[in-house]
Amino acid sequence: MRSLSPLLPLLLLGVHLIPTTPVRDEKSPGKSRKRVNPVPHTEPAEPDPIYEAYAYCNIPNRTEQGWEGHCPADYKLLSVHVMIRHGDRYPLYAIPKTRRPAIDCMLVPDRKPTHPQLAAFITHMSRGGRGRWDTALASLPRVPNHSVCEMGELTQTGVVQHLRNGQLLRNTYIKRHKLLPPDWSGQQLLVESTGKSRTLQSGLALLYGLLPDFDWAKLSVRHQWSTLFCDSSCDCPARNQYLEEEQKRQYQLRVADAQLDRTYAAMARTVGVPPRQLRAANPVDSLLCHLCHNLSFPCTPQGCLSAGQFGIIRRQQLEDERDRRRRGLYRRYALLAAHPFLNRTVARMLRVAEGRRDGGLFALSSAHDVTVAPLLSALGLAGARFPRFAARVVFELWRSPPPPRGAKDKDVDHDRDRKRLFVRVLYDGEDVTFQTAFCRDHDRHSQPLCPFNNFLSFVRKDMFSVLNATSYHEACHRRPV
Ligand SMILES: *[C@@H]1O[C@H](CO)[C@@H](O)[C@H](O)[C@H]1NC(C)=O
Ligand SMILES: *[C@@H]1O[C@H](CO)[C@@H](O)[C@H](O)[C@H]1NC(C)=O
Ligand SMILES: *[C@@H]1O[C@H](CO)[C@@H](O)[C@H](O)[C@H]1NC(C)=O
Ligand SMILES: *[C@@H]1O[C@H](CO)[C@@H](O)[C@H](O)[C@H]1NC(C)=O
Ligand SMILES: *[C@@H]1O[C@H](CO)[C@@H](O)[C@H](O)[C@H]1NC(C)=O
């Protein structure tokens, strides 16, 4: 995270904080495909920053449904790959000379927000010593456990968000599609996390919602040292160059904004530190936490930080987002940042489709906003809202029913087999498959699902065309275009 921190102000509050995840009728999946673009191309005249920020908080106070697991009858679900952002957390930065938000990070089942499985989850986590952990993860606490939250610690809200995600996925994948057999093996369930306690704990909460009282002895959790989940393919000089240019662009836009300048100066006066120090403390992160936890903004004897000031920082972020899209540097960064994860996902899907046991039927990657945001951008989902707390991106692999007898040779034909494979992509429960770069132009009248081959060809080659290259290696090791 450290190396990426200059980008954090941009990423902490993205533009498209759509206020609600629509609750839809489970019985009519066909409608989802008509919802082509959930984000209007024009900004509302006066976006209400407070209202939008609540969507980012993702306060677990209503029933949520998702379109995960919806497919024509007779299609078989082969595997599911989920990337999540950790749940609600304590700020990463403190506003100087003010009281930090008073939030208790102990898990207390009879305190709101809560979940029917919270007590059982706490008990189950206390037995986690029986799981197999990569070294960097073994010593992390498996539940948040401080009566005054530490910086960046997952809160009870964050745990509840992911218990709910897990339960939602359980209803469709485990109960309806029987994706994992009751005696699932360690090769069928793949779990990975960065080395932060909030990602590990978020992943475990989702897993518990998915498979209550899972057998610890079968679980192994892998450590991803990079927030990009790039495994052994992290070396990519061009990616770093695009990121640097993107940060330069962001910086120049910010320093040119006189209203933002005045706002930081006023906030700095209230707090009693130099403006530079106040800016460096990234106050919007802490203000968001206040908002998500229904706490009033901090005050000093000189006055209080205000919603109006919060709104101005937010307004600048909206402009930044538009500028970022126009300039395209971030997308170039994102394509290279997300490729290794996508490449691994595609490879696992192929292994499962070939009937091998080591592909993983359910794979969970527990990550950060700086992981999920580039993934969305790389997929071409420019209109997607910035990843809220406990956001989820889901890839599903499906196989259509076999062709009628007679039309089929006796030999195994991988090419023909692949033509029966399809992918779906979902973001926070919404089917975004036909907004992705690889299926946007797909003719849905001839074939209502997105062919896996489109996804495969995108990840292996097509995604690099923006970078005037045909492979990851070539794109990483040439001078940026
Ligand atoms: C959930 O909380 C948000 C933010 O406080 C609020 O705007 C919304 O009305 C609440 N929803 C329900 C169903 O209580
Ligand atoms: C939480 O911390 C307390 C004291 O710090 C300890 O007694 C308790 O066992 C811990 N619980 C868990 C689940 O780690
Ligand atoms: C938020 O706090 C105010 C008082 O500070 C209280 O009246 C209100 O009920 C709280 N809202 C929620 C959703 O807890
Ligand atoms: C992509 O996946 C293929 C097949 O698994 C592998 O051979 C290749 O090295 C991977 N490329 C990168 C850049 O990770
Ligand atoms: C794209 O790459 C080709 C050869 O790899 C090169 O000749 C061409 O100038 C490049 N185009 C741009 C816009 O960089």
Automatic annotation (TrEMBL):
Name-wise, this protein is 2-phosphoxylose phosphatase 1
Q: Which domain of life is it from?
A: Eukaryota
Q: Does the keyword Hydrolase apply?
A: yes
What PROSITE patterns does the database record attribute to this sequence? HIS_ACID_PHOSPHAT_1 (PS00616)
Q: Which Pfam families match?
A: His_Phos_2 (PF00328)
This chain's source organism reads Megalops atlanticus (Tarpon)
**Family of this protein:** Belongs to the histidine acid phosphatase family.
Could you say which residues form the signal peptide?
A: 1-22
Ranges for the region named Disordered are 22-46
Question: What cellular-component terms does GO give this entry?
Answer: Golgi apparatus
Quote the PANTHER family the UniProt record gives. Answer: 2-PHOSPHOXYLOSE PHOSPHATASE 1 (PTHR11567:SF110), ACID PHOSPHATASE-RELATED (PTHR11567)
- Quote the catalytic activity from the record: 3-O-[beta-D-GlcA-(1->3)-beta-D-Gal-(1->3)-beta-D-Gal-(1->4)-beta-D-2-O-P-Xyl]-L-seryl-[protein] + H2O = 3-O-(beta-D-GlcA-(1->3)-beta-D-Gal-(1->3)-beta-D-Gal-(1->4)-beta-D-Xyl)-L-seryl-[protein] + phosphate
One GO biological process term is:
glycosaminoglycan biosynthetic process
Keywords for the protein's UniProt record, in alphabetical order: Hydrolase, Signal
For this protein, the record's InterPro entries field holds: Acid_Pase_AS, His_Pase_clade-2, His_PPase_superfam, Histidine_acid_phosphatase
A GO molecular function held by the record: phosphatase activity
